[in-house]
Design brief:
Length: 206
């Protein structure tokens, strides 16, 4: 059994196990697979959290928002942060999705957070015909760690949007979703990351 929400790691470790068995059947070299979980000190999750913690030491004042997903925002040079204070009494998507009784944010909610954050920050709205003049394109989106919230507890989650380039050099933004570990602590846990950009919508042909 893998830790909660670690489907990607489970699949990768399953492949390594099968490869090791295959090598041992016909080869002269003994092969063993090591089933790694997410690492605390190295790897993409640790690197993203380290950058986030460094930025958090000098955080400007929050601006309150009236939004169903975001409570506040912080604007800094090169990046923008949207803050959500998740609680089961405020967020049905958390309260109604539980694993063994524990509230867990479902995977699709991260996509909703990413798209909503991008639309809010980039001011994407409808044109004169009532249709969106741009659509949102997400690529390289990964779910890293599950987001759980204890019953009757609040958890601060930050969605960070930074200017970035895609794999082919296309302009866009990197987006990460992280939560504060503990009450008022400086340790952050990465939950999701990806690349997001806006693409013009082709006009309808009647």
């Amino acid at each position: 059994m893998a830790p909660l929400g670690q489907v990607a790691y489970t699949a990768a470790n399953g492949f390594l196990d099968a490869f090791a068995r295959w090598k041992n059947r016909g080869g002269n070299t003994y092969t063993v697979s090591i089933n790694w979980d997410s690492w605390r000190d190295v790897g993409m999750a640790a690197e993203a959290v380290e950058r986030f913690e460094q930025r958090d030491t000098q955080s400007p004042a929050e601006q309150r928002l009236e939004h169903p997903l975001f409570d506040a925002r912080i604007d800094r040079e090169g990046e923008r942060i949207l803050i959500t204070r998740f609680h089961t009494s405020k967020h049905w998507v958390l309260d109604e999705h539980r694993v063994l009784g524990t509230p867990v944010l479902p995977g699709t909610a991260y996509l909703e957070i990413a798209v909503s954050a991008f639309k809010l920050l980039e001011g994407l709205d409808t044109g004169e015909d009532g249709q969106f003049n741009k659509t949102v394109h997400i690529s390289g989106f990964s779910l890293i760690n599950p987001l759980t919230v204890e019953e009757s507890r609040e958890k601060e989650v930050r969605t960070v949007v930074e200017t970035a380039e895609g794999k082919n050099g296309e302009p866009g933004f990197s987006i990460t979703v992280s939560s504060r570990a503990g009450s008022g602590g400086d340790t952050w846990r990465l939950h999701a990351k990806g690349f997001i950009r806006a693409i013009p919508v082709r006009p309808r042909v009647n």
